[in-house]
Amino acid sequence: MADVDITSQTMDGMGPHGTKVGLLRVLGPAHVWALGVGIVLVGEYMGWNFAVGKGGAYAALIACWFAGILYSCVAMIDSEVTSTVASAGGQYTQAKHIIGPLMAFNVGLYLVFAYTMLEAANAITAGYLFSVVASMTGHAAELDQRPFIILVIMFLAWLNYRGVLATLTFNLVITAVAFCAIIVLFLSTSGVLGGGIMEHAALFEGHELPYGWIGVLAAMHFGLWYYLGIEGTTQAAEEVRSPARALPFGTLAGIMTLLIAATLTWYVCSGILPWEYLGDGVDGAVAPLFDAARLSGSTALVWLLGFGTLFATLASANGCINDASRAWFAMGRDKYLPGWFGAVHPRYRTPYRAIVFLVPIALIFALGAPLDQVITFSILSGLLGYTFMPLNIIMFRRKWPLETIKRGYEHPFHPIPAITLLTLCGVTFFAVFLGYGTQLVAMIGFYIVVSLWFHFWRYRFVNRGAQFTMPWPKPRGY
Amino acid sequence: MARYQPPKQGKTSQLIDVVVLVVMTIGALFVPLWLNMAGAAKSVTNPATEATWEALGQNAAQAAKYEALGYTPETAHDLILARFDYGFSGMALLTMVAVILLYYFLILRFSEVEYREVISEKFGE
Amino acid sequence: MDLWIWLEYGAWGLSALLGLHMVFDWLRTDSTYSEEVLTSSREGEIEALAEQHKAGGAHHG
Predict the structure, then answer these.
(1) Which CATH architecture has domain A27-462?
(2) Is residue B64 a part of any domain in this protein?
(3) Which residues of B touch A459 (CB under 8 A)?
(4) pLDDT digits (tens, 9 = 90+) for A357-375
């Protein structure tokens, strides 16, 4: 630290090593797992079942596994890149170093929107849960859900504001409970413990593929929902004690957890609930695991899965606030967004301005837009991000071949995962087109307009060479 | 090569940038909603002739589940028979493909230009 | 008035309290510290320090 001048007026001895104010390195691999799985697990409790509605129960299972392949590629590619680019902002910082500033700006926005929309969807679901509990406990009038939606967002933002360690430890606990609830439900309804109540054959009879094979394609749209958000683990990079090890470990453990949880969820729900009911996430099964527990006839399971659902929505919203604010902060720090956002709280060591700023944005979406639109907006932003990843890894390997930079993790069989991922993204674009073509075009139109705005206006405030911060050699071919 | 010195951005200008971004974001979500172009609604194209589980295409096991969930053949009618329409025009598909390709072409092109500048300033020429 | 009406008011109140606490702390922080200190975080900096620490050991200061 020879370059640090201890008499400097700008450094007040508050930060790490008594120098500047940065984010705090306090997290371990379990927190990374909790961040990744915590964001996603809610997808098992609500939302994935729209895939059943799109093509029937078998289509949802096929989509579940193909989306599983898609996300395994995402996790592998992401683990390799992030084990070398360990910085808040995750894929945004990766894109900045590997593809270029405009791509990075777009990726940063995908992240912020995917997470903020998901946070809004979670808050809406939590509000709905409160209204269900209210009517179950004998509240006669319709419950006003708004104060509960606002409270969820406010409380979690407040938790995030006060420090990352408490935030993600909280996430670890509630995510573990929600995951165990799925396992317990599976064990007690499948016949492993006691009598099983599964009736797959009878329930599927006559409804194997109600839409034929195009239904399987269409189901891919909501198939993503089983896993959406696992890539968020990289946002913790600047707060993990040993990123090169903890990030790949936490991410890969996370995707394995989710593959198990997703398959179990499908198995339990499709064996208990008829597909038309299961597939309608608005008028039918809003919270399918909870409905499955209700039909099991066990009060204990109803309570367990009720809490599981609530915890899953809270964990997800919590992780989303964490990730969206990291990405927003990282862009502010580089002046991709107004530099004002690049501030760190001197005491709590969190990107506090980004956290506070995103609260009203999340509230607008949670209170003002219908759930399936919010989910679709989130999925689309995620999908654009997954399409970026294969481009990213191909360029990364070309500009810096394996021998030029040491990676904490090298993913196998390159470029097969990249090509697989790109193909599956193409299929998913088609699936989204089948139901939400207008939103897709509107959304890409939005990204084209903001890209032009960035290239011709905003980029003038960005330092050119200084934004490349990794200690890497010069890329090949430049 | 001379280093690029970015101008310092004032508070007002920062605020305007944020407002512009927020307005564009909210526009992207709400404009399709206001224009009523959003979403894929399901509809019942083939209503059942009588209100029985058989007429709704449900076997005994399926009917038992619906009854356990508190439905009767009348209340479950729309839930069971509503279907999506997956018909689309080739023109619409081509438009979507074109828009996506245009988008990626645009960002990759501009990114490359900006990236070359970054690398040449960072590593010197 | 049943319990849930009270819970609704409670949720409004608690949300307002948490929101106000954040805004209050934010304004206080902004006025206590200079903008240079608050925005002194730099990408990759901690990384570089950690590497140096690992490599040199003795440089730690």
Answers:
(1) Up-down Bundle (1.20)
(2) yes
(3) 114
(4) 999 999 999 998 887 778 8
